[in-house]
Amino acid sequence: MKLRVALAQINPTVGDLEGNAALISEYTDQAKKAAADVIVFPEMVLTGYPVEDLAMRASFRSASKKALAQLVTSLNPSIVSVVGYLDESTTGAPQNNVAIIYGSKIAATYTKRHLPNYGVFDEFRNFVPGDSTLVIRVKGVDIGIAICEDIWHSLADLAARKPGLVLVPNGSPYERNKDDVRLALVQKRAKEIGAPLAYVNMTGGQDDLVFDGDTIVVDARGVVISRAAQFQDQLLVVDIDSATQTSTPDVVISESGVEASDSLPPAVAARMSDNEEIWNALVMGLRDYVAKNKFRSVVVGLSGGIDSALVAAIAVDALGAKCVNGVAMPSKYSSDHSVEDATAFAANTGIHFRNVEIEPMVQSFMQSITLKAVAAENIQARVRGTTLMGISNQEGHLVLATGNKSELAVGYSTLYGDAVGGFAPIKDIYKTDVWALATWRNAQATARGEVAPIPQRSIEKEPSAELRPDQKDSDSLPEYELLDQLLTRYVDGDQGSAALIAAGFDSALVMRVIAMVDKAEYKRRQYPPGTKVSVRAFGKDRRLPMTSRWSEA
Amino acid sequence: MKLRVALAQINPTVGDLEGNAALISEYTDQAKKAAADVIVFPEMVLTGYPVEDLAMRASFRSASKKALAQLVTSLNPSIVSVVGYLDESTTGAPQNNVAIIYGSKIAATYTKRHLPNYGVFDEFRNFVPGDSTLVIRVKGVDIGIAICEDIWHSLADLAARKPGLVLVPNGSPYERNKDDVRLALVQKRAKEIGAPLAYVNMTGGQDDLVFDGDTIVVDARGVVISRAAQFQDQLLVVDIDSATQTSTPDVVISESGVEASDSLPPAVAARMSDNEEIWNALVMGLRDYVAKNKFRSVVVGLSGGIDSALVAAIAVDALGAKCVNGVAMPSKYSSDHSVEDATAFAANTGIHFRNVEIEPMVQSFMQSITLKAVAAENIQARVRGTTLMGISNQEGHLVLATGNKSELAVGYSTLYGDAVGGFAPIKDIYKTDVWALATWRNAQATARGEVAPIPQRSIEKEPSAELRPDQKDSDSLPEYELLDQLLTRYVDGDQGSAALIAAGFDSALVMRVIAMVDKAEYKRRQYPPGTKVSVRAFGKDRRLPMTSRWSEA
User: Fold this and answer.
1) Which of A80, A410, B132, B288 is 20 to 30 A away from residue A338, measured at CA?
2) What pLDDT was estimated at residue B58?
3) Same domain, B397 and B470
């Protein structure tokens, strides 16, 4: 039986039940028009994902169930829709569920059985797991259901039920090379189960996470039938040859049916290069952070250096130049090329630009309190932070912080100074990657016959914080090429000092870098910002999404 | 058999393996001198608790095991020591364990079976659970072991083994009225198991948590035999009548023995009043945050109002007046009594005090950028924050933020302004409780014939942020009596709007307050401070303790 399956690679918003429901309806209608038998949405599409501690609010669970009930009556009844939502167990505990909707009824539900509780995931905190498999029959095809983490574990129990097809809604965040890992996993499970597998993932930014899509369909041998584009909303419609009546289904929706008369060509989107992938993740993450939090514009301090230029270039691609405000804030230690290069960036891109001299503010502090050395350097960064926040409060822009991962990891940053901002677009990007991305983005522009956004001098100049005369990053830090290699192993790879030394790095340098990272890590915690406050009695804060449209009021 | 059990209610430091080991040795020697047969330490005493994601560092697990091995050879071999530490499963996964140490050997280990994963706890993330009970025989008494969360679940399997005594190491954080809940639970489990139960808890501050001690021993009927003082380090030594040879132990340390010749009187410490409890929690939390992070002194902005006075009074009790630096930072909108009351507080307590006029700094910003209304108000708060951070950087004091829970919950606070600080002592205290605690602390002073620290006018004046002429909190907020009732129900009690309205609150007011709380909650997330940055690839930050002595370097 050739089953036509539509996979909705879309971008829901956490807490926006009404908006997400409208999106689900719209895509269901599209799928029906394409003669699809089934449409599958990403994990928890109705509430958005991840909902974090919103799962524990009774009022939110009840709103999710109510929104689902409304959707059941309004969705096109002649197509099977697989819709993720937040439900409750019989004892009132939160569940990460999908509903199988058909004929204006819920034909079945399935509860995610394997809850990830590592890295960015906290699902043991937020959900109780399900304990049963689900197989539904559609046009004679017995379809097994799994949700995201479920397929990272053995699905022997589902395999034993011999489904003719497996559908998997996901909320799988982007990481470098994650697409390769995903594909291999999807292929492995399909072969183990002996059935085609359709994996649908969401797109969009949600707080610190970016979902890259990368929806995949493979056949029972693991061969790719179709694959969606990365970082793009898309309805991927696929004809999947599926064996019929292979199982004893829990629910029969239809015993047999007619195949679509036309035949869809296989569609496998081209893969992006590493730099293109990262660039798209940064742009999508920023665009959604701004839009989903109902900002319209951003403001960023432009030092003439590479970090702030890269952040502003990401913002231009995410929001358009008219929504980006650059502010040069030179001090007496700023080089001549500082304001020149900031001005050149603004001219290249067409963003709004202004220049605020910070010397009068710095002087007023220096005359009121006694400040020397690092304390005096920090005042300059904090005057800049206060200036950006003032402009933000007055004009309504979101402030972007420009720190990169290398300098943040070793604590080369001023709290309440250059660290000020609601979103830090390149906090996960090492300095060497900052240069690589800037070069890549400029080359893309040149190849398209556009003006390269980032001034070449910003890329080539020696990094400096310009907080005292002739200061260079290399006064305080190892060369970035070397530093980034160490950080990649220590911070990302969790390799200890012994492993780093064994890998051939100088032992004094290893200990110096580890000491800097650990000190910075604790300093960030010793000075948790005023904003990270608990409003719980002697407890840590509730873990709620930064970005959400949910409020009871 | 009268078994003599020593319960070490002590204050370990997360990551300080050497210091904690020394503390364990010292208390073991003390217990031996008191002729105790067994000494029990709090949960994970060797590593400190909670270690959060440090559990996932192989180098930290290996350091914990090495420290345990050293302790085994150095502890007094003629007493049974029950010592919590971080171990690994055979597959290398982290475990929350206790070791039973006797005769310079590890006689047995037990792995925590129930992992809390709610509220402040993340143990599913950090540990794998154990799956077996442990009973050891000491002087013929069969002793069952459970760790903290274990006793919040049914211990039917342990009860079935019929131990003659149960020992429970804990890391149980303070909450209001937690002592009543704990006592009832300990009594219930002792009765269910049919054996005496000894519950030992730690003391001390760890990041946002405070451990209050409250070590309890009950007999098999649940009657309290002994109870330690709250918020004090103490070795509680208790004679416990325990039935012998009731079980089939996993390990036999000794089949019988001689009872101690003397007899200890039962010791049940008096309970503190609610205000005294909270005060002690605040003082202990601040003292340990400062000491464990290796600060020696604090700086706090003194507005003449009640919040900053209360924070400074807590700091004086925690650190002594000589370690507290008060800074008045009046603006043109400050009332006359602002600086007078700040000066009076300093005179009452003997803290260091200085006055920094902020008008010149505020004017320099106003002349450089266009700021009106709230944007202009915020500049004043941010100039104060920058001033405190400048003094902190120059002189090395930790900045204390003075926001209370009521104003933080509704967002009546300036990010990077009054929210600046490494620790916010009263962030969990509602405004009405701020007044009550100030009054209580002053009365305590008066009763002891001391000068009351907090000026009466600071307690009585109408709350104002003094950021514009004649501003009052009541311009923007409901009266605190009413606001705090609503916040207690909505924020702490997770009651929804329907429940609040049903409880008789005005529906417009309910919706207004909920909207303020939700907006503030999201604002705090939309502007996560520059400091809360991930150094992980597209992931959230590792969850490490703010306070820890652990570094590989």
Assistant:
1) A410
2) 85
3) yes
**Domain co-membership, A237 together with A381:** no
In CATH, what number is assigned to the domain containing residue A28? 3.60.110.10
Q: What is the pLDDT of residue B536?
A: 37
In this structure, the answer to whether residues A425 and A338 fall within a common structural domain is yes
pTM: 0.93
Task: Judge if B38 and B65 occupy the same domain.
Answer: yes
Please confirm, yes or no, whether B323 is among the known catalytic residues: no
Which one of B79-88, B287-296, B520-529 scores highest in mean pLDDT? Answer: B79-88
- A112 catalytic? Reply is yes
Specify whether B171 is located in the same domain as B42.
yes
**B471 touching A (Cβ < 8 Å):** no
* DSSP secondary structure, B460-493, as one string: HSPP---SSTT--HHHHS--HHHHHHHHIIIIIS
Residue A32 host element (H or E): helix A17-33
Buried b (16+ CB within 10 A) or exposed e, B254-283: eeeeeebeeebeeeebeebeebbbbbbbbb
Counting the structural domains of chain B, the total is: 2
Q: Please give the residue range of the domain that contains residue B166.
A: 2-258
The tokens for A358 are 């910070």
Which of A230, A258, A286 is a domain's end point?
Answer: A258
Euclidean distance between CA atoms B209 and A447, whole angstroms: 56
Distances (CA, A) of B444 to B275, B279, B434, B455: 11, 11, 15, 14
Contact at CB, A547 and B526, closer than 8 angstroms: yes
The interface residues of chain B toward chain A in range 249-278, judged by CB-CB distance below 8 A, are none
A165-206 tens-digit pLDDT:
999 999 999 988 888 999 999 999 999 999 999 999 999 998
Q: What is the mean pLDDT of residues A156-166?
A: 98
Interface of A with B in 395-414 (CB under 8 A): 398-399, 401, 403, 405, 408-409, 413
Of residues B542 and B176, more confidence is placed in: B176
Report the range of poorest mean pLDDT among A211-225, B63-77, B336-350, B484-498.
Answer: B484-498
Cβ contact, residue pair B119, A368, below 8 Å: no
Q: Summarize the confidence of residues A429-439 as an average pLDDT.
A: 96
Residues B367 and B222 grouped into a single domain: no
Is A43 one of the catalytic residues? yes
Residue A436 domain-assigned (yes or no): yes
B46, HSE (Cβ side, Cα atoms, 13 Å): 28
Residue A125 and residue A181 share a domain: yes
Residues A410 and A513 in one domain: yes
B210 and B204 Cβ atoms separated by less than 8 Å: yes
Flag whether B270 is in a domain: no
Give A9-43 pLDDT, tens digit per residue.
Answer: 999 999 999 999 999 999 999 999 999 999 999 99
Alpha-carbon distance A423 to nearest alpha carbon in chain B (angstroms) = 7
